[in-house]
Amino acid sequence: MQNVIMLFRIMIMMTIPLRAAGSLQQNRLFLDFFWDLARPDQEVRLKAVENLVHCCSLQEDELEYTFKRLVDGLGHTRETARPGFSLALGQVLSAFEDVSLQSVLDRIKEKHSLQAVKKVTFGHFLYCVCCVLQEPPVVLGCVKLLQSLSQHKQHLKDLPNKTMTDILSEVTEVFEEVLLSALQTDLASAFRTPEQLQLLLVALQRFPQTLKPKKLKNLLGSSTIINADNIPRLTEVLKMAAQSVKKERVLPAVVLDLLKLSLKEDSFQLFWNKAIVDGMLKEQQGPTHFLSFRLLGAALPLLSLSQLKEVLSGEVMMLYGEHVVTAQKPDRFKLAPEMDDYVSSFLQGCQDSDRQLAVMLGFSSLTNQGYPVVPSVWRVVQHLQPEALLGYVDWLKNMFLQPQMDRLLDFSTRKQKTVLSNWVFRLRKWIVARLSSIIDNHQVKKQEELIMDVARFVFFHAFFSTKKASADIAETKEKLSVPLDERTRGVLVNSFFGLLMSMHHLPLSDDSAEGAAVNQKRVLGVTADGNMWIYHLVQYADVLLNQPKHVQNSRPFSPEQRQAWDSMLESVANLKKKAKKGPSAESSAFQQLFLLVGMHLFKAPEELLDIMKDLQSCMDKAQEKKAKKKKKKQASEQQEEVEPEWVEVMVDILLSLLSQQSRHIRQVCKTVFSSICPHVTAAALTAVLDVSNAFMEGIHEETSSGCKFIPESDDSEDSDEEAEDEAMEEEKDDDEEEEMENEEVDQNFRLELMKVLQQQNALATEEDGSSDEDMDDDAMMELDKSLSALFSEQKKKTQAKKDEKAKLQKERTLVREFKIKVLDLVEVFVARQAGSPLVLGLVEPLLTIIDRGMSSNSEQQEQDFLRRAADIFRNQLCRSKVYCRTAGDRQGELHDLLDKLMTKAQKLSDSSVCLYYFSASLYVVKVLRGAPPAETTDEPVEFMGNVDVDRVSTVFRDALSSFMSRRKSPLTAQMFTDLFSRFPVLCVKLLDTAVQNITSGVRDHQQGQACVLVLRAMQSREVQQLLHGAPWMKLCGNVMDHLQNVGQAESKVVKEKVVKVLELCQFVVKQVHHQKLSVDMDPLQNVLQPLTSSIAFKKTGKLEDTYWAVMKHFGVTKPKVEKTKPDGDADQQEAPKKKKGFLPETKKRKKRNKPVLEPAGDKSTSTNKPGADKGQAKKKHDQKAKQKRPADGETASQLNPSKKSKTQPENQPAKKKKKKKKPKQKKE
């Protein structure tokens, strides 16, 4: 592409007269401006226009060439280039006023004939010219030229008319003098097309003094445009405009201009009712309807209050509602997002609260059988003024209290023939959700009084009812016209607790937050006076409970429940008093927990009564323990032996609350547990872990009774096939068991049926030969009753089993969800108390959860639970920078734990689970080592803290020996690499074992991994520091001795091992030479030199490159392969073949087909015979069977001995394994 551009530039340069050599660079930059004018990027085009005008002003000799290029560019084939050239031409003309515009127009007419009008877009240029220069002859010439171009609609479409409209919108003084006579024909035919009507409307807007009513009457026959006589013609023009923008899906400008003209002429009602409602909406649903809907949205800022009320309660709104309801399917076009944008822009730009409220009420009153069409979460409410928002909330509350169908614009679709009787419930359900969404939207500008008013309204009608009006309770002044049913109360209850959740995250209002510091932490969930929102609601609830004469609780409290409520208020009051002395997060968390449990008493008083009592006693004990901690320490210890700690009771309470289906309770429980984490005891933490382990035990039991878990192994193909076979057999067994159960049920039912038939003597036997015909009518009726009762009972039994199964499944799901929530507490404790010794007690339980989770079935809940537990263990426990540093008194316990973990890890079958156990072992070692003394700035390499190095080394040495001696071990080399890098002291202890396994590993794979471990260890700087001097030289010599046994086979595994051996050799030899160690390397050199003869080397590769890198240290370089010329006889034989092409001999197909053709005795066949063509026809088969051959002609058996079977002699042909043919052998 760059070459083509350069070629074009050279051709253009050739057309320019020769200039001086010094101006060559300037000419090049000047030409680049024209190239930039054709770029698609608008910014580049504008910059090019600016530079071109500046350059022409400096060099006026370039002006002639500039006009030539710009006029040529008006007919550019690229659409994006033409506006750039037209704009540039207009700007150049404006800069050089002495240039005759008529000459430029003549030049355009000469260059661009009307026959080639497909490429011409003079409209852009003419518009630019008239914008900058308003000379009457030029403007008149432009308009006449556009009128002549308007006949070519197949190419230009409506561009000439649009350009004339743009010219009218810009010119000022020349209209009456010049253009009016030229445009008289176009203005007189305004009702023919939307473009001509748009031209007239623009002329009326720009020149009202010229186009007076008398002038309009001469042009159109009427002094006004919108009248009863012109409505039919206007309707047809509107329909044409709707069809013209069918693909663009926009509102034509002519329609909006007509609406503005109707408002100006005071004929809006005539235009709206006759042209839109009676004209456009009478068509079938399609572009005309969509244009009417868009016009409704665009007209909102233009209409007065009375006009808004009229339009929003008319036929257009009704049909818009039907469109929204019927367009719910994903494949249908939806105009609701556009309408939302129209309403949002209107509310954002309108400052009149009355008009805003009218629009909101109009759209909220549009209902489909009681349910409003607009969503309950409508974001446009955030643009309302405070007065409009208050009025809207009052309307919602009044409509909830006294729903009236006649005040709504209700409709039913064609499929909804009958009106629903529960329209009141549908309306109230939407209103409650609408009120809650207003509070939940933080972008809505609302005062605290409004928030509390909505919360009180929802709470009152959710749990109370009015008996008698009271001046102290505003909610009792208005009564319900339709009583609330249970479904509505359920919606109110759920919405109220969701509202509590939203209020818990509400920030302070803007007025109260102005005085706060910039860097101060943002406070959520409190009012301006510092109290929590829920506290104000509890105070309001207490007021309602204390006035039984005026209000009645839907679920009256028992004396015991009322006592719990009063004690809750007393506890909160005590906590607030103590918070005034010294505020703390613990006090705030307990207040919130008390208040939340108190509010939930209205929802489930029986369930939360015991929790409230326990919470109260727990709080009392906690306060007593703090007060008497110093004075009565011994007495408190005796009490602790009898009764559990208060924190244990608190943990039990939190676990009980987590069973509630409430996100708010879940967050509050996390907050409270976070505040009491410093006081949590081992027993309290055990209670949390027992819940999680019990959950996994239940899952494990379900799994063991159901499908069997098959761990993944390295041998993926065989193990996967065996697993699939076992799974298929188990599925068949399960299906057979279900069929057997069904057969047993059917058999029992069959026996019952036989009994009924025998009792009624309706069972035919061979002895009496009776039949149904011998029975009378009474006997038949009795038989029918008996059979009906039997089948009815059987149906009930079947349904009862299904219901029981569904109930168990639901309970199991709820229990699993609850146990997943319990992990929140574990995560909070690990995050807040990572340095506590109690965290060490989480290691084994979390590993048990992971181990059992890996062996369970793959349901989503189990996966979520397992993923969460694994994340807590790996990222927040093992990888945490904060860990327990005070484990000096638990050395024996931690060493025993390390032995237990490593023993368990070696017995596992899944490597992924073993990784978690190994990580836990490293974590235990880290805890045992602890932190170095404070005096030392850098951590010493030899420091191991409380670690018994000999005992721990023995544990890991046994694990390393197990990994090297077992064919299938869950341990991996990466695990020991992490051990070596994190604990260099242990690495030094295990190096001898790793070096020995270079030769004594059970398989070549283990031997190669031993080389990797030794290499990583020797590369460590810490290890080099620990083994500095004689130990390091001894290690290098020991490694040299074990590296002399290099594999001689050609298998892939052996080659991988040889690569790792050579990498280790390279490092050791380099160290010996660099440090000048006295190590004898001759035996290693003697072993490596004949390696090229035992293993076939390629020209390049990792094995070959590493080998020659090692040999380079011994002074042996890689030999260069000399190219040998072929013999003379061979040249004579292959001379004719060179005519076929330039491919090398090893790549020619005829040479590859020689072994196939030789047995057929066809050696003398030439390439021109059909035999050669037959060989070429088998191209696809030959490509599958071909093997790489070197130039010296070695056979495939010599090149690829590694593809033979390991247990097969070399003189026997290898047999391919075909697993897919096994079933066929069974059939035979």
From TrEMBL:
Keywords: Coiled coil, Nucleus, Signal. The gene is MYBBP1A. Residues 1-21 form the signal peptide. This is Myb-binding protein 1A-like protein. InterPro entries: ARM-type_fold, DNA_pol_V/MYBBP1A. It comes from Amphiprion ocellaris (Clown anemonefish). It comes from the Eukaryota. One of its GO terms (molecular function) is transcription corepressor activity. Residues 1137-1154, 1177-1188, 1214-1228 have a biased composition (Basic residues).
